[in-house]
Amino acid sequence: MIDHFSVVPHLIALGIAYALAIPIGWDRERAERSAGLRTFPLVAIAACGFVQATEGVLGGHPEGVARVVEGIITGIGFIGGGAIIKHGTSVFGTATAASLWATGAVGVSVGLGVYDVAVVISAMTFITLRFLAPLKREGAEAER
Known about the structure:
The chain has one domain. Helix content is 76%, strand content 4%.
C-alpha cells in the first residue's frame, strides 16, 4: 500500500483545478455574489479529488468512474440550486449556479487528465461572466 502512495501527481492536478477556478471565483466575488473566491476553488478541487480517488480504486472500470462523475454533476447542481433565489417575479443567482456547475466540470476534466478541456471551460466561463454581464445590464436598462 505504501508503494502506491504518491502525493505529487495529485497535488499538481489539484493545484491546476484550483488555479483554473480562481478567475471564476474572483469574478463572482467582485460582483458580490453569494458564492465567490473560496467556493469556486473548493468545488473544483473537490470534483477533481473525487475523480482522482475513484480512478485510483476503479482505474480499469470506466462504468464506475462514469457513475462517480454522474454523482459529482448532480451534487454540484444541488449546490448551485442553493445559489438561486426567487424574489417576486425576479430570479437571481442563475449565473452563479451555472458557473458553479462549470467549475465542477473544470475539476472533473482535470481529474480525468483532460487539461485542455478544463482550460477551455475555465476561460469560456470567465469570459462569459466578465464580458457579457455589461451587455445584460445595458439590455435591462433599455427595457425600463
